[in-house]
Write a structure and sequence with these properties.
The structure holds 2 protein chains of 2 kinds.
Chain A lengths: L2 E5 L2 E3 L5 E8 L8 E6 L5 E7 L6 E3 L7 E6 L4 E6 L8 E9 L2 E5 L3 E5 L2
Parallel strand pairs in A: 2-11
Antiparallel strand pairs in A: 1-3, 3-8, 4-5, 4-9, 5-6, 7-8, 9-10, 9-11
Chain B lengths: L3 E3 L2 E4 L4 E8 L11 E5 L6 E5 L3 E2 L7 E6 L2 E7 L8 E9 L2 E4 L3 E5 L1
Parallel strand pairs in B: 2-11
Antiparallel strand pairs in B: 1-3, 3-8, 4-5, 4-9, 5-6, 7-8, 9-10, 9-11
Classes of the chains: A mainly beta, B mainly beta.
Amino acid sequence: EVQLVESGGGLVQPGGSLRLSCAASGFTFSSYSMSWVRQAPGKGLECVSYISGSSNTIYYADSVKGRFTISRDNDKNSLYLQMNSLRVEDTAVYYCAKAASRAFDYWGQGALVTVSS
Amino acid sequence: QTVVTQEPSFSVSPGGTVTLTCGLSYGSVSTTHYPSWYQQTPGQAPRTLIYSTNTRSSGVPDRFSGSILGNKAALTITGAQADDESDYYCVVYMGSGTWVFGGGTKLTVL
């Protein structure tokens, strides 16, 4: 059974940093691309970052480019999102999602990040 | 800036059929965009319904179907049930690991 479990969310002040983790199991992690998708309160979904299985291809949405860094450790079956210079508008639930067939086939339960003073 | 358009809201009667659509601010949605559809209820993670235009995800009942209608992707729910009341998101693939989500359609079953 595929499982994606996010951790690392919490309350942080504007300008602060936070690192999200996603522990994956139930599939060959290194063979699949992964993404972080966020959802601000009461809003829709936004794909903020993508990383290929070998980390050769990485994408960032313009809204986070230069502030967020995606990475993965295939030996630990883990995906990460380092978030720096956080803004109030980064407040959202962040989902880890497995990519397959140019879509997202499995989702984690989400991690809430709140940026507030 | 690519914008994916969806109806903000829709309603359907129990047992009825509804078709939600997904368009692009410019041009047409085609199979080369690999449109996918996701269902989300409040407080829950999204659930994958359809990928690659018309392939149902594992465990999704066959009353959910995907297609291309004209210049848009479409999600059709046949025989709507009360627990289909959810938000539905369309996503189009733009290449190189980039996806654009639509704003979502809030479906009411009443």
